[in-house]
Each structure stands twice: as structure tokens, then as C-alpha cells.
Amino acid sequence: MPVRQLPEQVVNRIAAGEVVERPASVVKELVENAIDAGASRIDVFTDGGGRRRIGITDDGSGMSHSDLALAVDRHATSKLDDEDLLHIRTLGFRGEALPSIGAVAKLGITTRHAGEPHAWSQSVEGGIKSAIMPAALGQGTRVEVSDLFYATPARLKFLKTDRTEAEAIREVVRRLAMARPDIAFTLAGEERAPVAWAAALPGASGRLTRLGDILGADFRGCAIEVRAERDGVVVEGFAAVPSLTRANALGQYLFVNGRPVRDKLIIGAVRAAYSDYLPRDRHPVVALFVTLDSAEVDANVHPAKTEVRFRNAGLVRALIVHALKEGLAREGKRTAANSDGAALASFRPSFAPRPGNWDWRRSPAYPVGPRPGFEGSAATAFAEPGQAAFDVGTPTADVRFEAQPSADLIDRPLGAARTQIHETYIVSQTRDGLIVVDQHAAHERIVYERLKASLARNGVQRQILLIPEIVELDEATIERLLARAEELASFGLAIESFGPGAVAVRETPSLLGKTNAGALLRDLAEHMEEWDEALPLERRLMHVAATMACHGSVRAGRRLKPEEMNALLREMEDTPNSGQCNHGRPTYVELKLSDIEKLFGRR
Asked: What HAMAP family would the database entry show (predicted)?
């Protein structure tokens, strides 16, 4: 078959395959165009999951008659002043969106520029342009897309259900709305109820308001503001406290120069920052905004512009980790249980309705007569069965060890211990409320931080094996391990080659105790293949430290003396990150006196 030049319509449809993957791709491109046009309000309407109709209306600058004529041509854009692709300051720049959409759908554009006497309208169907006609529109641009993929019916087979496609559109608009809190967004469609996000005030407070509207009130109540800056790179945003987690990483959002992107960089950086707070199968909720010189980031690496490449990715990762760790350390004693009203909501009173066939003679308060040996005592006069509910048994701790706690203890952040209940929870009194502490979770964090400090101060203590352990592995795995032998040795694991297909383990970290060297090496090799660094061994040591802390801490069910309870509270105050254990569970819950008074109707 000879080589031939493809027709323009076929070229446009091929190009559309890269840009227009699904209805959500159309919405993304059109909303980005509206943002670049300086819109302060953007309305999005969809029907049939975007397959039947997509409508985007904005109040931006609009286009003139000549601009509209060029806008539907391939590689025609107003967003590049010259041929420099290293200083891209807009969301779009390729000039492919409108012609690609018009090649596979029915596209209608109505726009009005401030310098024009009226609006202009043009339509494109299957790549064929119509004449530009006068139209009526007050300001901005309205884009209508209908019958998506009618020109390429085969693409319709790969679309999912209308509800799934509508949810993908919703996620696109959510990300763009998070990136630009100064713009009002409205999302409507027959698939779900309309959603409106009003424009927020500039600054961190306005950004948190928009994030709370999208991610939920629980995030707003548990958000920690984070910020770091170095060498012209600024990382700022909000991260949820470790008690608020998700089962996947979909709650982690990254924005680079106002552009929503998906990058594995943030997943690894966030996991590293939260490694001391969360179990392996839980993921935090964060929204981070990276601002840097446009020449330091390449946005032209993905057809849909959903990925970027940093010139100095290590600096960006380090700043993300530093910002998150600094924020978490600053708010280390704050947990979701103490900041979002969850504890107060758990105390709401509830009353069971009285059954319709209730018989007062069967009431627990019905008198059954005096007991034998009645001596007229008032105490025995109330000996009906219902009074048995007040028989709580002997106290699990001496609640009268101190009639009035000292003022200096009351004024401490965690107050003065007053009692221990169920031999698990310490109740302390503060100046303006009370605190309930989980003694096991609290001491687990204390022991864990001690182990980490010892590890950093003295280095990894190693133990020499009396008889080296021989581990057989495949050759590729052995080569990967031996290539990092020096780094592994710095963490206390000494290995050397032992013939083909085997390595000899001569020293292991003493912190591991008696360990299965074969399983350890296989685990390390898997991590090295994924991350290509010795860090997983350090994480493994931290995991072991966490396990030792769990087993070496005060167990639930142990009765504590008053002095021990107060000592535990003082250690919590001096320990970083004591608001939650290393599994992410809260270590204490605080109730303010004002909240308690509300529960009893005193306020």
C-alpha cells in the first residue's frame, strides 16, 4: 500500500482520540478555556452522562468575529505569545480542544467580546464548519456539545453507564473548582441534583472554605494548614489530621501552578510524611498547591495535560514531605475526635418510646413490699429491682485519691487525672472541661517515639550471627540486593554473595531480634524494585519499632495508680504527635464544659 496524505477530517478524528477520551475530557477542556478567558462564574450542564449534551457557559472575555473563525482550526490558540513552550502560564495552549471536539461531535459556540456590538455564533459537525452568524448573548461564551462520538460510533462502545460518566465529569469539575476558589461553579444534570460552589474570599481561609464545600465538613474541621518554601518553590495547602483517612489515595489532590495534575510524586511524598501516623492500608486526605516558575515545570508531556514533569522533582518532593511533617508536628495533639464534634455527637441523649401495652405494675419502680428485717431505714425502702441498676460494683480505681487536684495540674493541657474506668481509660479534669485518655494508645505513641529517638541517636545496633544464614533467591533479586549492599549495611544488615543463586546474611539489626532473614530479604528486594532506594529497610525498622511499642506499652485492663496516671498525662504533653497512636487512632477525646452544659440543657 503506498504512502498517502490523510484527509484533514481523518487527521482531526485521530487527534481527537488523544484529547477527547470520554465526556469528562470535553468538560475539562472547555472549563479550562473558560478559566483562561478570565471567567468569574462557570455553569456546567450535562445530559446522558455528557454523551447526549454538554453545555458550558461563562462570563469571561469572549471572542471577536476573527478569533471565532480561527478558534475551531487545529493548532490555533490565543494563549501563546510566541513559540516558547517553556513559559506556559495558562491551562490550555495547544489549540486542539475545539477542533478535536468538533471532529467527533456536534459543536456550537456562541460568544461575545466586549469590543463587539453583538455576539457571534458558529457550529461544527463532524469537522465541517458552518458560516459565522450573529447571535444574542450578554457576555462571555456559551459552548454546546451534543451527540458526542456520533462521527465515530465505535468510540461509543467504550463509554460506561451514564451515571459513571456523570461521576467522572463531577470529579473533573471538583478538581478545577478546588484549584480556583475565586471562581463560582455550578454543575447540573439529570443524573444528580445541581451543585453550586460560590466564589470564596482570597487567601487560605477562602481556599479552606472551597475545600470544605467539596471534600466535606469533616475535612474542614480536621484540616491542618501546611506551607513550605525554598528556592522559588512554594508548597501550601491543607492536610487532614491522621484520624481522618480513606481506604485509597483518591483523596489526595495536587495542583501545580493552578493546574490539577495526577502525579505519583505526591503519593510517595504523602506516604513518607504520614508514615509515623497511619497503618499501611490507610491513606490521608490532602490538597496541596505547588507554585513555581513556569520554566521549572513541563506541562507539555501528556496529551490531556494531566501530568507534569518537574526540573527538580527531588526539591518538590522534599518540600511536600517537610510541609506535611511540620504541620503534623505542630498539630500533633489534635485529632479528628477532638476537632470535628464527633465526640460531642456521641453523647446526644436518646429516649426509647414507651410501648403501647405498657403496664405500670410491671415497672421496675413498682414497690414489692418491705424485705424481712425491715427497720424503717430509708435506704432499704428503695430496694425494688430497679435500684439494682445503681449497683456498679467496686470501683476499678480509687476515685477519691485527691479531693481537690492542685491548680498547677488543672492548668496543664491534659489536666489532672481523677479516675480510671474499665481499667482502660483515664478521666482527667482540665480548667474548662474533661479529657478521656486511652491509656494503651497513649503509651504506645510514647514508647514508639522513644524507640525512634534511640535509633536516631545511637544508630542501628547490629547483632553478628553465630552461623551465617544462607538465603537462596533468583539471580536478578540477588544482583539487586548486592548492588545496594553498602546502603543495607548502614542499616545493620550485612550480606555478601554465597555462590550462584544465594547470599549469606552475617549481621542483622538487633532491633529485629530473631528474624526470618529470607523473608526480610525478599521483602526488601520487592521494595527496591519499586522504589530503587534503601528507604524501605528504614521503614521496616520503623514498623518493627511500632510493633515493639504496641507490645511494650501499658496494656488495656491494667489498673494504674494515681501517680502513674498523672505521669502518663505529663509524658503525653512532652511527646510529639501524642494526639494519636502510630496506627492513626486518637489517644484522647476532649469535652469542653460548655459542650457538656449544652448536653444537659444548661445553655
From this structure: DNA_mis_repair
Task: Give pTM, 2 decimals.
Answer: 0.70
Regarding whether 210 and 192 lie in a shared domain, the answer is no
Q: How many CB atoms lie within 10 A of CB 132?
A: 15
* Shared-domain flag, residues 193 and 288: no
Q: Does residue 235 carry a pLDDT above 90?
A: yes
**CA distances, 346 to each of 342, 441, 469, 595 (Å):** 6, 20, 54, 12
515/433 same-domain check: yes
- d(CA 82, CA 71) in angstroms, rounded, equals 17
Cβ atoms of 491 and 533 closer than 8 Å: no
Pick the residue with more confidence: 427 or 580? 427
- Contact in structure between 433 and 592 (CB atoms under 8 Å): yes
Range of the structural domain that residue 20 is part of? 8-81+90-197
The cell for 454 is: 534511640
Q: Are residues 447 and 467 in the same domain?
A: yes
Based on the fold, state whether residues 463 and 479 are members of the same structural domain.
yes
Structural domain count of the chain: 3
Structural contact between residues 33 and 54, judged by C-beta atoms closer than 8 angstroms: no
**174, 141, 169: which is closest to 37 by C-alpha?**
141
Query: What are the strands, taking DSSP E only, across 449-488?
Result: 462-472
CA dist 119 → 45, 76, 111, 420 (Å): 21, 21, 5, 75
Distance in angstroms (rounded) separating the CA atoms of residues 499 and 503: 7
pLDDT tens sequence across 486-513: 777 766 788 899 888 889 999 887 755 6
Same domain, 245 and 159: no
Q: Which residues pair with 142 in a beta bridge?
A: 57, 110
5 versus 34: which is more confidently predicted?
34
Residue 446's nearest CA partner among 558, 537, 333 is: 333
Closest among 157, 140, 156 to 148, alpha carbons compared: 156
Q: How many helices (H) and strands (E) does the chain have?
A: 21, 25
Residue 333 has pLDDT above 70, yes or no: no
Q: Supply the Cα-derived Rg of the chain in whole angstroms.
A: 32
Return the DSSP state at 353: P
Calpha distance 445→335 (Å, rounded): 14
Work out the average pLDDT over 225-238. 94
CATH of the domain at 568: 3.30.1540.20
Cα gap 521→537, rounded to integer Å: 10
pLDDT in tens, 78-126: 766 666 666 677 786 666 788 888 888 899 999 999 888 899 999 999 8
